[in-house]
Amino acid sequence: MPLNSISPLDGRYEKYTKDLAPYFSESASMKYKVLMECEYLIALSETRGVGMRKLSAKEKKLLRNLYENFSIKDAQIISDIELKGYKEIKATNHDFKAMEYFIKEKLGKTSLKDILEFTHFGLTTWDATHTAYTLMIGESMREVYLPALEEIAKKIGKLAKDNKNIPMLARTHGQPASPTTFGKEFKIFEERLSRQIGQIKNHVLLAKLNGATGNYNALHAAYPRIDWVNFSKKFIKGIAQFRKVKMEINLFTTQIEPYDSFVELFDMLRRINFILIGFNQDVWRYISDDWIAQQSVAGEVGSSTMPHKINPWFLENSEGNLGTANALFEFFARKLPISRLQRDLSDSTVLRSIGTAFGHSLIGFKYLNNQLARIVVNKTKMREDLNKHPEVIAEAIQTILRREGKRMPYEKLKELTRGKTLVLKDIYKFIDQLDIKPKIKAELKKITPENYLGLAERLAQL
């Protein structure tokens, strides 16, 4: 654990967030921008009418090796070019120009030295940068975020099926309500997550490739006979297929792509975090009520002063991290779609925090996953607490009495049960006094808190 890190993502929680480093670290950001520029060079070489020679298979491989074998040493060179200079290159104080000079410096020693000036040809920084971020987000979603989320949904689904018929007291407004099953309540969360996962998998991110103010000005000036709109469509489609990311061109931008598709995705991630925060809080309450027990682990300490405690701190930590992520996602939604006129730079520094939001989400997932592996459903305690509230079957009794045409059954049950402590015998006594047929009385007496579950068991298995 790096003990001198400012951010807990790279310090205390590094073991949970390290899988995101290949996508959102500074080095990763550089790598994806190099990727974009190298693939752009290859695309230019394959476009008839551009005054650039065709590249051999060996030369294409050489270009792709620049990003496929991109190292921390390469990242340091780019950083040096930007901040203090490197060899004969003076400090640029511009991160992307440093990237361009790095590529030229590498290619200048190869057979590609004659096409150096086609690097970043006719583009603005944000053509490459935005496409790089699109790939970073898309690939991290596929490789890290979704697998972690799907693991949680799978575990919740298993708990739902395993406990499909375990009766449980429901609470609405915090008060005893018509019974449910433990499995069905978990099934709700599994379904909510599955729906959001489906939306994420179908979501398309947008990218740009149209120059300084979005009009292909420089490209059209250099080669007016080339259909640059079609070129950009083909390029983005090709790189999307190559990298297996759902991505399309946005033809209508200023210097920057307006980030609407990013914000749409972030809103999905925010909803997922809210769903999991709700789940965390429910499970926390079940633990507090002893309906869920926590497995102890030898050597672990629950409290610095109370030896008996096993605190549900995994849930609490998960909740805190998911909330932190959501604060960032919400800020992204307010900030990123707004830029002064054709461009201001306030989005650039904000984008660097996307990985932070993903990191806190992932920590939330990991801690929740740890908790799910430790819980044991206390079926006995759940039944005991349910049976302490026989009044919850009053709903069933008054509904059947309505079916039978009896007057004011709701009011009679209200008088019997509201604000009172009952046992099942009190309800049976009430039933015996009703002016109804014996078979209806028998029907009513068959209803208990444990079997008044409706279709909960069936729903938990769907």
UniProtKB/TrEMBL annotation:
Fumarate lyase N-terminal domain sequence ranges: 12-320
Protein's GO biological process: IMP biosynthetic process
Signal peptide range: none
Location of the Adenylosuccinate lyase PurB C-terminal domain: 339-453
Keywords: Lyase, Purine biosynthesis
Database matches in InterPro entries: Fumarase/histidase_N (IPR024083), Fumarate_lyase_CS (IPR020557), Fumarate_lyase_fam (IPR000362), Fumarate_lyase_N (IPR022761), L-Aspartase-like (IPR008948), PurB_bact (IPR047136), PurB_C (IPR013539)
GO molecular function, one term: N6-(1,2-dicarboxyethyl)AMP AMP-lyase (fumarate-forming) activity
Function noted in UniProt: Catalyzes two reactions in de novo purine nucleotide biosynthesis. Catalyzes the breakdown of 5-aminoimidazole- (N-succinylocarboxamide) ribotide (SAICAR or 2-[5-amino-1-(5-phospho-beta-D-ribosyl)imidazole-4-carboxamido]succinate) to 5-aminoimidazole-4-carboxamide ribotide (AICAR or 5-amino-1-(5-phospho-beta-D-ribosyl)imidazole-4-carboxamide) and fumarate, and of adenylosuccinate (ADS or N(6)-(1,2-dicarboxyethyl)-AMP) to adenosine monophosphate (AMP) and fumarate.
The protein's name: Adenylosuccinate lyase
Gene source species: Candidatus Doudnabacteria bacterium RIFCSPHIGHO2_12_FULL_48_16
Lineage: Bacteria, Candidatus Doudnaibacteriota
